């Protein structure tokens, strides 16, 4: 497992909540897979996951909901 570049602590697999404030509303993506530093709590999202989040945000923008809450793994299961 990689080490945290900030504090040298162990990075562990975990999940995060990612929220974006758009002009039209708020998108909240739950259960986003990420690495979390066990020591300082810093989170890293892999580039593939970040791309997926972008797609989710774009879709949500098109819908123009005030609030959209998405569970990340469900969407991954469809497209990966
Ligand atoms: Zn750290």
In what range is the share of β-strand residues?
A: 35-45%
Summed up, the helix count is: 2
Described by its quaternary structure, the protein is: single chain
- Tell me which ligands are bound: zinc ion
> Biggest sheet: strands, sense, closure?
4 strands, mixed
Low-pLDDT residue intervals, each spanning 5 or more residues: 75-80
What does this structure look like?
The chain is an alpha+beta fold and 80 residues long. It has a domain of 53 residues. It is built from two helices and four strands, in the order E-E-E-H-E-H. Strands 1, 2, 3 and 4 form a four-stranded mixed β-sheet that branches. The site of zinc ion has 8 residues, from loops. Zinc ion (ZN) binds next to loops.
Any chance you could write out the topology, listing elements then pairs?
Elements: E1 11-21, E2 26-37, E3 43-44, H1 47-63, E4 67-71, H2 72-79
Parallel strand pairs: 2-4
Antiparallel strand pairs: 1-2, 2-3
The structure holds zinc ion.
Brief summary:
The chain has helices spanning about 45-65, 70-80; strands at about 10-20, 25-35, 45, 65-70. It has about 80 residues and is an alpha+beta fold. The chain is elongated, with a radius of gyration of 14 Å.
